[in-house]
């Protein structure tokens, strides 16, 4: 296990802003997990698993956070077949695009809608990332987690998931996703690749893929207009505040346009949320994780 003192959230997250954590603990293999248990038992800071740093808005200043990052081998392998389904095991540290490439190369279908989503497989599971009608957790068969010093395997009856939500039957104690097994369907490689490419191109056309952004900042309200539509109608597409702004391309993407701060980001988010509520009565809920956790 390698320890880095005072790591910068601005360096480690896709939004490229925020203060510093107490330390960053990088785990090279499961052999480091006992060392992590010992470390966490002796500190009062809040642990946070960090993958590629998307979907994170860290506050400014010195934060009481211990970051944990898996530096395990990024393995993907076919473990078995059950009828027409292939069960594919993937490490949580594997980048989601790499996993999707493996699926396409082996003609496994079911996850094409996730094309263009950044981050790791573990992060995609933890927030049930999704797009184009696809949810990460819909294809899950099992998940190996580390919690309270023990590694255990969970099955679908042990967890619940919903829109941008995944939990172990209400258990909110700290855990780390180590690996997961997905059940995937046989498909035609050319059709899978075509669908992934089309989804990625649509994202590129509609979203600020090349900007410093955490992704969608607000969740879409259930059964109504999308958060992007509501923000656009309230006049927030392209609206700037200090060094941050809502994208000119998609109103629900907050971007760090010029050395922005977390304070500026939260102020702009609150202004947008209040404006949408005053106009429509709808209270937008943040999708981006605010670290440390606090109400908007």
Order of helices and strands: EHEHEEEEEHEHEEEEEEEHEHEEEHE
Rg value = 19 Å
CATH top level assignment of the largest domain: Alpha Beta
Compute the separation of the termini in Å. 35 Å
Number of domains: 3
Write structural notes for this entry.
By secondary structure, this protein is α+β, with helices and mostly antiparallel strands. The protein folds into three domains: 69 residues, Uridine Diphospho-n-acetylenolpyruvylglucosamine Reductase, domain 2, CATH 3.30.43; 131 residues, Uridine Diphospho-n-acetylenolpyruvylglucosamine Reductase, domain 3, CATH 3.30.465; 79 residues, UDP-N-acetylenolpyruvoylglucosamine reductase, C-terminal domain (Uridine Diphospho-n-acetylenolpyruvylglucosamine Reductase, domain 1, Alpha-Beta Complex), CATH 3.90.78. Helices cover 25% and strands 30% of the residues. Strands 6, 7, 8, 11, 12 and 15 form a six-stranded antiparallel β-sheet that branches. A four-stranded mixed β-sheet has the order 1-2-5-3, covered by helices on one side. Strands 16-19-18-17 form a four-stranded antiparallel β-sheet. The longest helix has 19 residues.
Characteristics:
Uridine Diphospho-n-acetylenolpyruvylglucosamine Reductase, domain 2, Uridine Diphospho-n-acetylenolpyruvylglucosamine Reductase, domain 3, globular, 296 residues, six-stranded antiparallel beta sheet, 3 domains, 7 helices, Uridine Diphospho-n-acetylenolpyruvylglucosamine Reductase, domain 1, alpha+beta, 25% helix
């Amino acid at each position: 296990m390698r320890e880095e003192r005072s790591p910068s959230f601005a360096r480690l997250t896709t939004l490229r802003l925020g203060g510093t954590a107490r330390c960053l603990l990088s785990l090279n293999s499961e052999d480091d997990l006992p060392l992590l248990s010992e470390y966490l038992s002796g500190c009062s800071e809040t642990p946070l698993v960090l993958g590629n740093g998307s979907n994170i808005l860290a506050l400014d200043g010195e934060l009481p956070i211990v970051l944990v990052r898996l530096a395990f081998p990024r393995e993907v392998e076919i473990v078995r077949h059950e009828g027409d389904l292939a069960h594919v095991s993937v490490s949580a540290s594997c980048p989601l695009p790499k996993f999707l490439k493996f699926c396409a190369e082996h003609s496994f279908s079911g996850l094409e809608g996730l094309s263009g989503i950044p981050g790791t497989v573990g992060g995609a599971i933890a927030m049930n990332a999704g797009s184009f009608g696809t949810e990460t957790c819909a294809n899950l068969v099992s998940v190996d987690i580390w919690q309270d010093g023990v590694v255990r395997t969970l099955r679908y009856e042990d967890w619940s998931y919903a829109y941008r939500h995944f939990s172990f039957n209400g258990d909110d104690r700290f855990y780390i996703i180590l690996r997961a097994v997905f059940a995937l369907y046989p498909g035609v490689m050319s059709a899978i690749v075509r669908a992934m490419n089309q989804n990625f191109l649509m994202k590129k056309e509609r979203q600020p893929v090349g900007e410093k952004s955490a992704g969608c900042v607000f969740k879409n309200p259930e059964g109504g207009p999308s958060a992007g539509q509501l923000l656009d109608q309230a006049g927030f597409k392209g609206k700037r505040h200090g060094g941050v702004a809502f994208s000119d391309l998609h109103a629900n993407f907050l971007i760090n346009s010029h050395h922005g701060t977390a304070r500026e980001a939260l102020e702009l988010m609150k202004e947008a949320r209040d404006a949408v509520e005053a106009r429509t009565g709808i209270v937008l809920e943040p999708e981006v994780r605010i670290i440390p956790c606090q109400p908007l």
